[in-house]
Every structure is written in structure tokens, then in C-alpha cells.
């Protein structure tokens, strides 16, 4: 290297040294310097023990025109903390020597896993993220509620009763064994992890009450997940399952609420009596069936991505005083709320069609409505298969009402009249004071289910309302 080259290298080294020295000297070192945070407290909704939380974050901001050097970022409880940190891409209970450029920010990500608490009541778990800057400390609080659970991890359960002491958390699915019965008492809360399914090969008995319904939901407890569908799979009744009962339950936020029946099985189709139950926020269907036997009263099925009721390949069905209200707006739904067929197109490796006789499908004192032009889809594969259905005192949303005049299938049916729900956007499908569906039901049908979903007497005025709810006006408003 000639002298010119040596001089050039020397100049670059000296300049770099000067810049580096300047950079070090530019850090603000006053004890009065303070960091700015996007929040003073990071809250976690109820966290089930042994199952980690979702990730939360906050930002740390340098409000000055010169850089800052944070000596350390640590958890207040140190190594014993149930919380975990990731500070600007560096994970650990403590991260040292972090620099923030002028007017810049860095991200702090936080997660928490809470050990079993040995009790049934939620426990408040606190900690803080402590920042040390120029020998002064600032902190951001961390607050989480921990809840012990009965953990069901891929188990095949035999005859037993689930009591209302602490929630049940299902991960990796579960199954009720053949010839065994799972009984669920009033008020039990059942949360299922993503992609988990409750399979029933034996018998499921859900015994909720009006004051203490049984809850089936996803395990995300943040408020923003209250109405988000697809968080778990659903309740799947396999062929051979029988004498199933669901009364006073809320089933929400899955792919389907309940599904009955499966192909490639010589066992009899399953049966279910479901009453006083709300099924909502499903990516596919609220109730789906392959040739099953279903009896249903006082049920609300709402907010489903494909069908509220998908009743295919025949079967035997009786729905009385149910409200089908499908105002799905998560995507462009192109399917009707009610699908009724005596066949099914298989899509597993072939294009064959499976048929089954629709022995009977009765819809009585019902509302079947939604935000599409046609909410009723009826399709028969052939007359030889069997396709018997009947609508009596129902309010239907259809595209061509003139096609629904056959007296063998329809009696006192109302078309395309807004039911008069209190507020569809809030999933409140009770009837308002001027609702069209008021007093349109048949009394004899109403007397078979005299109490509505809320326990109100729907027969007292001699004119029951359509759907699951009876409008009861206060004395002062009459």
C-alpha cells in the first residue's frame, strides 16, 4: 500500500473513532431524564393455569433530541416471575444496555403462564417491568387473573359428571366413550383450545338452567374475542351415539355448534334433543346433520358463515319456537340459513352422492330470517328417496314467495316481513314492541312449549309470538 492509501485508511479510522466518541458522549445522562410509555399498565384477561397467554405489548419512547441508553429492563419479581419479556427482539427476564435514538421507540412484548393455584377462585397475579435509566427507575405494571381449570388433554372419558367448581379446558380434543355418559351440571364453563373438538360416541347430557346455563366456548378470554368465530371446532356426535340432551346452554365461537352423523359407518345415526340453547358465531353452521334425529325447542341459532341449520342426507327433525337469525357479516355469505336435503355430495376422493330419506322435517312457530334474499334452501335428489317437510306458522325470508304455496308443505306462512328484532347488530333477537312476529304463532303449537327461552309464558294472551322469545310488555307500557 502506498503512502496515499495509508493516509486514507488512517483518516477513516480517525473519523470513525471521533464519530463513535461523539455518539457515546451524546447520550443524555441527567438523572431528570424520563422515558415515555404507551401505557402505565398491561392487563391480561383471565389466564387458565398451565396455558400461556396471548402476547401483549407496549412501547417505550425517547421524547428527546438526543439518544438514551437504558441500563436494564427487568421483571420486578426476577427469575420467579410468571411473566416473560422480549425487549426489542431480545428475550429474557432481564435485558441490559439498550439504546433508543432521538424521538424513537422500542417495543416490549409480554407473555404470562400461571402455575396451578390450588383453588377455584381467580387469583390476581401482579408484576412490573422495571426500567433503569441514569440510575433512576421507572416501571410499567403487569396485571393478570389466573384461573385453575380441570384440564382435559386428548382424553377418552367414561361415565362421569362435571360439576360447577372450576372451568374445564379442553386441548387436543376429547371423546365421550361408547356406552358411557358424560353429564354436565348447571353453570359449568367449558373452554376448548384452537382446533379442539368434543366428540361424543356415547351419550352427552347437558343440564343447564335458565339462571345457570352451561357454556361452551373458545379459550381466548380477551374481550375482543367475545364474538369471533372459528376459535375451536364444536361438539361432534358420532354414529351410534344416542339419548343425547342439551338444555339451557350457550355454544359459541366455533366452526360448528353441534354436528351429528358421519359417513362410512354401519352404526345408527345419532339423536339429540336440544332446547333453550343459544348457538352463535360459527364459521360453518350452528347445527349440522347427516341423517340424524333432532328435536329442538326455544333455540336461537345466529351469526353463522354458511348455514344456521344444515340438515342433509335425510333424517328426522322437529323444530318448534326457534329463532334462526343469520346476519353474518364476517365475509360474503352465499348460502341460505336453512339447508334441507335428502342427499350429500361427497368430496373426499370422489364425486359420489349419498342419499337418505327425509322422514320428516317440521318447522313450527318459527322465524327463519337473515340478511340474504333467500334464507331457505330445499333440495331433493329424487322423489323416490323421500322428502317430507312442513312449515306451520313460520316467518320465512325467501326470494320467490309464489313457490311456497303447496298446502302439503306450508300452512299460515309469512314471507319477507322484518321480524322486528330488538337489535341484530348486538345479537339481541328478542322482539321489540311493534315487531311483526308478535302474536303470529299458533296457540296449539305454543302450548307444547308454553315457556319461552327466558321462562315467560307464551300462551297467557292466547297468541304466542313466533320464535324463541315471547314479548312481555310492562303494565305501564300497555
Question: How does this model look, in words?
Answer:
The structure is a single chain. The protein is 6% helix and 45% strand. With 478 residues, it is mostly beta strands. The protein has two domains: 36-146, Immunoglobulin-like (Sandwich), CATH 2.60.40.2310; 149-477. Residues 3-15 and 17-23 have low confidence and may be disordered.
Spell out the blueprint of helices and strands.
Blueprint (H helix, E strand, L loop, with lengths): L2 H23 L10 E2 L3 E8 L7 E6 L6 E8 L7 E5 L2 E2 L2 E7 L4 E8 L10 E11 L2 E12 L2 E4 L2 E2 L2 E3 L5 E4 L2 E3 L4 E4 L4 E4 L4 E4 L2 E5 L6 E5 L15 E4 L6 E9 L3 E5 L10 E12 L2 E6 L2 E5 L2 E5 L2 E6 L2 E6 L2 E4 L11 E4 L1 E3 L7 E3 L2 E7 L2 E4 L5 E4 L10 E7 L13 E6 L5 E3 L4 E4 L11 H6 L30
Parallel strand pairs: 2-10, 11-14, 12-15, 13-16, 14-17, 15-18, 16-19, 17-20, 18-21, 19-22, 20-22, 21-23, 22-24, 23-25, 24-26, 24-27, 25-28, 26-29, 27-30, 28-31, 29-34, 30-35, 31-36, 34-37, 35-37, 37-38
Antiparallel strand pairs: 1-3, 3-8, 4-7, 4-9, 5-6, 5-8, 9-10, 32-33, 39-40
Shape: elongated
Which radius of gyration do the C-alpha atoms yield? 30 Å
Helix fraction by DSSP (H/I, runs of at least 4)? under 10%
Cα(first) to Cα(last) distance is 104 Å
Percent of residues in β-strands? 35-45%
Taking the sheet with the most strands, its summary is: 9 strands, parallel
- Uncertain segments: 3-15, 17-23
How many H/I helices?
A: 2
Structural class: mainly beta
Number of strands: 40
Q: Main sheet: which strands, in order across?
A: 12-15-18-21-23-25-28-31-36
